TrEMBL record, chain A:
<keyword id="KW-0812">Transmembrane</keyword>
<comment type="similarity">
    <text>Belongs to the binding-protein-dependent transport system permease family.</text>
</comment>
<dbReference type="GO" id="GO:0055085">
    <property type="term" value="P:transmembrane transport"/>
</dbReference>
<feature type="transmembrane region" description="Helical">
    <location>
        <begin position="76"/>
        <end position="98"/>
    </location>
</feature>
<feature type="transmembrane region" description="Helical">
    <location>
        <begin position="183"/>
        <end position="208"/>
    </location>
</feature>
<keyword id="KW-1133">Transmembrane helix</keyword>
<dbReference type="Pfam" id="PF00528">
    <property type="entry name" value="BPD_transp_1"/>
</dbReference>
<protein>
    <submittedName>
        <fullName>Binding-protein-dependent transport systems inner membrane component</fullName>
    </submittedName>
</protein>
<feature type="transmembrane region" description="Helical">
    <location>
        <begin position="12"/>
        <end position="34"/>
    </location>
</feature>
<feature type="transmembrane region" description="Helical">
    <location>
        <begin position="241"/>
        <end position="262"/>
    </location>
</feature>
<feature type="domain" description="ABC transmembrane type-1">
    <location>
        <begin position="72"/>
        <end position="262"/>
    </location>
</feature>
<dbReference type="InterPro" id="IPR035906">
    <property type="entry name" value="MetI-like_sf"/>
</dbReference>
<feature type="transmembrane region" description="Helical">
    <location>
        <begin position="110"/>
        <end position="130"/>
    </location>
</feature>
<dbReference type="GO" id="GO:0005886">
    <property type="term" value="C:plasma membrane"/>
</dbReference>
<dbReference type="InterPro" id="IPR000515">
    <property type="entry name" value="MetI-like"/>
</dbReference>
<dbReference type="InterPro" id="IPR050901">
    <property type="entry name" value="BP-dep_ABC_trans_perm"/>
</dbReference>
<keyword id="KW-1003">Cell membrane</keyword>
Amino acid sequence: MTASVQDTRTDRLIRFGFLAAMLIFFALPIVYLFSTSFKTPDDVLQGRLLPEAATLKNYPNAFAHVPVLRMIWNSVAVALLSGVITLVIAVPATYATIKLGAFRRTVPNITLASYAAPPIIALIPLFYLLQTAQLMDSIPGLALVHGLMNLPVAFWLLKSFVSDIPAEIDEAAWIDGAGYWHTLFAVILPLIFPGILATALICIILSYNEFLFASALTFSEASRTITVGMSLFQGERLVNFGQMAAASFTGMVPIYLIAFLFQKHLVGGLTQGSIK
Amino acid sequence: MVSINIQNLEKHYGKVKALHGLNLEIDDGEFIVLVGPSGCGKSTLLRCVAGLNPISGGDILFDGTPVGHLPPQERDLSMVFQNYALYPHLTVAQNLAFGLKVRKTSAEEIEKRVKWAADILAITPYLDRRPRALSGGQRQRVAMGRAMVKHSNAFLFDEPLSNLDAQLRVQMRKEIRALQQRIGVTSIYVTHDQVEAMTMGDRIVVMKDGRIEQVGSPAELYTAPRTRFVAGFIGSPQMSFVTAQADGHQMTLSDGTVLTSATAATGAVTLGIRPEHFLDGTSEANRLTLDVTTQQVVGTSTSYFATLGDGEIEVIRQGSDTERPATLALGIRPEHIMVFDKDDQRIAA
Amino acid sequence: MATPPAASFGSDRGANQRKRAEWSMTLPLMAGLAIFAGYPLVYLVLLAFSRSDLGQQFQGFVGLENFDWALSGTNFSGSVGHAILFALIVSLVQLALGLYLAVILSKIVRGGRWLRTIVLLPLMTPPVMVGIAWKLILNPSGGWLNGILLRTGLIDAPISFFGNHDLAFPAIMLADTWQWTPLIVILCFAILQGVPHDVEEAAALDGAYPKRIFWTVTLPMIAPALLSVYLLRVIMALKTFDLVYTLTFGGPGNATNIATFEIWKTALREFDAGLAAAQTLMFAITVSVVTLPIVLLHNHLEKRR
């Protein structure tokens, strides 16, 4: 804000109070989940923020009870594979649509329409498709579905990065004799690398977090993802909150790692792609 | 290096015609400048030659071979863009080498040519830098270098100097022209700046509304413009125009002033006089005394503005005159009064 | 210069090469969307007019029977109402909170890195885990909120937020707001960064105070962008499924039964694929009808600028 725009002291106090309240609001559930993962069953019932006698047992017990690490590994595998599928399809298509003007009305419209449609629409048909393709209950099968699911998101995120590159750069490459695919790989890809990274991260997170398709398309231990596993934790007769919190928190670690390491890329990707 | 032959070239965007059947022959090694106001089609023409815009009719020939159907990749041209369009992720050396690598030129040959271009352009110290770390003038040179290394059919320039400051622009004009003469490459240069056109081109193509108004050497365009548009566009300061009734060599202005022109005409005409062609009132023909309305001192010269007939005329004089005279006593030679008919075509003397 | 239409150059080699590149680059995307969106739509239409269960589809053509039954014999229309109500309300609340927070953040110069991380975490959290975290807080036995309320003596017996007919929906909205307000903050922050300072400065020179400048100058300028954010959020909120699944399973009764959950139950709990398909189609149409006015309003505001 500019120097000419002055605020009163009360305004500043109100703002600070609201900011503090919101930050506590954002942090609290994660903090509480984390602290619960160290609580004994008795401790849990107290409903206090911090455990009275912290225990580390919840983690090994949860891992023994549910194959947490295996499910996290499944989720990571699905997320990475689906990210690759999404980018391999979306990057050339975005380049062709934005820079070559290929189907420049059709592609944005159908991607938008398929994003707006609730994913539940695709659930039943994809269920049968995977069954026919013998990909049901497999990591590649779910990765394929997630990879296709994230196409509209990837297209809209990449779109703004690609259109930020001046048209003359491509044209210079063409005149230098580089074909369209060659231009994409040798000139455009290095230039939009930050955008590709941000898009990849966002697609990976969306896949890792996804539940609806994962719950319907994976069920055996070999392919079940962590979100599905955690939802099953819920249905059990005797819920051990400490163990559930321990397993949940472990399941969130990969995503939080990404958030910590790449926060700049993530925020940049989200804002670049959505604000035109 | 090739001769370029443009035949009946047409370009339309949907129903809008951008180029109306252009014909132009460019000799091998010639430096041609396309000039005109924005929207006249000069950039479109250049991009058609480059293959960046597909053509809608007619053809383009390089040394007699039609190339209108070829993609830009196969025309073997070099182009210097207004914003230089250097590859931001590559070093200067890699920028120069890109086009050669695409063509699978050998590594030694690439090195040789990059060194050759860098020496000529004095950019050798910057070969390992990225474009971001260069000044505007240096980027301009790298763009030139990228064009040079390829030994291409022709150079295409799309307003390459308009992002530079005035001083550097004047210097780069000279450098580009000297380089072009040294290499002897056929060049097409697009600009909206008529001074640039006059100082650089072997020949100038003046364009308007997707048509070629006139093609000629700078001197021809200055002394013998074919239309009122060319007369007004070429020359700085601009030519002044006044309407008149012609009866033979006698031109009567709306305020009753009678001027004698070397050109004969009848009926309604427009007279054009260049600011630098007004003489001191002591000279022989066409004596005038005009009230000065405003005056601008431009260092070595001074411009005076005065009303003549139904037009405002500009008079330019050497020296900086800080005091505004109330009136100016002027003379004009008859051969310096150009006469344009009602269709804005110049009537030959 | 925009890319020209290449229609008139069928025989042209340059245009052909370009066409080939365009097709080879876009075809995988088209195919992907055809598999993910096109094929399901066709399949759904066929299912909707047939008697189909999950194990055996297309047992016979039944006309509009599935649609009829969905509207008259099930909780479907109520669940659509819930979904729309949910989407419109949470999006509005989150837009208001997010915008205000973004305004505050745009005045803060330092500490951006930490604020950004805290704001990012809820957004990144898998929705299923969001459900678990909020369940821990709101649970009657051992929930933090109940713990506080009991200790301070505000209540005598623990409240079952997810078991109470009136509290369950707001509780889900609270969890949803926790997760998605950060996205709005990030987007609104970027929008505010894009507002040219000179306009605000001109208004300040005209004697307007900050609050007034925000309401009369800044807000009208960013209104179309805010509406886009709202639209995006409404579309996303209409897809909500995970939170309901983990927190309430649609209950108590049908209090939090939203359309996506109802369809899921029909398909994967009752195995009635035909009925679920009919419900899905009707829900998809509803989504378009709900989002259309927002799109029109957005276009209207955009034009006025």
